[in-house]
């Protein structure tokens, strides 16, 4: 029986992925690297330092910087990102999400945030939806990033539920892999070839309907 929903944040509740991409684009440019088109999906769901490593690896420059220099680059990126998300308002909640949250509330489903972003609490406050959630996994306490299942297992524990009682939402292939490794039902939002591992796929959040998702979950 469905008892809880576990949500990724960036790319699911709001399109903060575009701010991540823009900030990394500027950092990459400052060190003479052009982000490849696959960075769009590749950066989704990865922690801040994993994102930088992904960019450097993609350019064949994984050994170019010391750890301290990498920390400085990641800090620079985060400063730009934090500035960008200050402009977010409830109008930035993605289509279909307000109805989904309302329907979940009516059904008294537990709702937890499973975002790799240390800025997730700030974004939830900007969007004015922080009170809708029963908990937020603190990514600073995690040992491994997505696609490792740790974050979804922790979210499920925060909800006090079992893997077969939750549906988890993701826009990133690494995130869908994390959900499946946690043994949960995955809803993928985006390109069906990229998110092929998901149990239920919609092209955009506008197509999310709790009754249909629940029917697929129970099938
Ligand atoms: P921060 P999600 C992820 O959030 C983003 O998709 C990813 O691009 C970002 O690097 C990561 O959060 C860390 O974010 O730098 O704010 O801690 O998709 O897991 O909600
Ligand atoms: Mg995401």
UniProtKB/TrEMBL annotation:
One Pfam family recorded for the sequence: Hydrolase
Gene3D superfamilies for this protein: HAD superfamily/HAD-like, Putative phosphatase, domain 2
GO molecular function terms attached to this record: beta-phosphoglucomutase activity
EC number: 5.4.2.6
Chain segments annotated as transmembrane: none
Keywords: Isomerase
InterPro entries: B-phosphoglucomutase_hydrolase, Beta-PGM, HAD-like_sf, HAD-like_SPP, HAD-SF_hydro_IA, HAD_sf, PGP-like_dom2
Keyword Isomerase: yes
Protein family per UniProt: Belongs to the HAD-like hydrolase superfamily. CbbY/CbbZ/Gph/YieH family.
Protein name: Beta-phosphoglucomutase
């Amino acid at each position: 029986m469905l008892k809880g929903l576990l949500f990724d944040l960036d790319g699911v509740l709001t399109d903060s992925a575009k701010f991540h991409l823009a900030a990394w684009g500027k950092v990459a440019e400052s060190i003479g690297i052009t982000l490849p088109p696959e960075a769009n999906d590749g950066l989704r769901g990865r922690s801040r330092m994993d994102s930088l490593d992904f960019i450097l690896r993609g350019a064949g420059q994984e050994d170019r910087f010391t750890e301290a220099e990498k920390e400085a680059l990641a800090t620079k990126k985060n400063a730009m990102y934090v500035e960008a998300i200050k402009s977010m308002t409830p109008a930035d909640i993605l289509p279909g999400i307000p109805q989904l949250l309302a329907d979940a509330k009516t059904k008294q489903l537990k709702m937890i945030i499973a975002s790799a972003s240390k800025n997730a609490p700030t974004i939830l406050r900007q969007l004015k939806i922080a009170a809708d959630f029963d908990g937020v996994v603190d990514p600073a306490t995690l040992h491994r990033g997505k696609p490792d299942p740790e974050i979804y297992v922790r979210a499920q524990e925060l909800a006090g539920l079992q893997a077969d009682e939750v549906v988890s939402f993701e826009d990133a292939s690494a995130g869908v892999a994390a959900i499946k490794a946690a043994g949960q039902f995955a809803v993928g939002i985006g390109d069906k070839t990229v998110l092929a591992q998901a149990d239920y796929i919609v092209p955009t959040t506008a197509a999310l309907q709790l009754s249909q998702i629940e029917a697929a979950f129970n099938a």
